[in-house]
Amino acid sequence: MQKLDAQLGPSLVRPYSLRNSPREKGRYLICVRRDDAGRGGSRTLHRGLTVGRRLRISPPRNHFPLVAAGHHVLVEGGIGITPLLSMAEALAARGASSVLHHYTSGAAEAPLLERLHTSALGERAVVHHSDQGDTVRAGLPAELQVPEPDTAVHVCGPDGFMTHVAAEATAAGRHPEQLHTERFAPAAPPSAEAGDGAKAEVPTAHGVEGGLSCEQGICGACPTPVLAGDPDHRDEVQTPDERAAGDRITLCCSRARTPELLLDL
Ligand code: FES
Known about the structure:
Ubiquitin-like (UB roll), alpha/beta, globular, three-stranded antiparallel sheet, Rossmann fold, 3 domains, five-stranded parallel sheet
């Protein structure tokens, strides 16, 4: 699943998942749900973006790739359909064994539901409506209730939704390494428990910038090589193995366990 960063203002950069296939040339398709209680990115886009206006964007990057497996189960809630529908279509195009489960509050609110019905997924897509009692809390999809060794599970949606799916799938015997998650918000706000709570401005010099986007540790825009020191990881994008290696740090949210970190900016 690919993302790009869009510059929405002088210091306002936000990451967006690409909805269209990497094979499609000539346009990038993103879907943005307006969130008036959010940090301002979606409001800026909905109010200020008009046809013909130019946006500065980054090249696409991919930190949530499809992993190799004999069968893929894609589970998403709400706007989580944005990245996973692209994955489902890519899997269908290559004839891979897969199923997409789309959880929504109701038919009237289902984002991209029409697109889902007109896609080539057919029986590879299952829509669940919570206003009909069909929720993940009422029961996980049958594919997740039995451990299957050669199955990859990708999950995307609101934090509570993802936490519940991951916990239930693990309790049903699914190995944690089979679960791959993509968050729109951090699982928990960073705490100051490992530090003294003091803030410090890190000056940039010689035009060096950190390349921040989401500023929440969820987009994968800012991992930076660590040359010396021990990072205290607070992000959601690095795998447990990458965290253990300690050779990259997400600048936007992580910290240092050692008095000094030497970074390759
Ligand atoms: S800016 Fe998104 S992970 Fe750091």
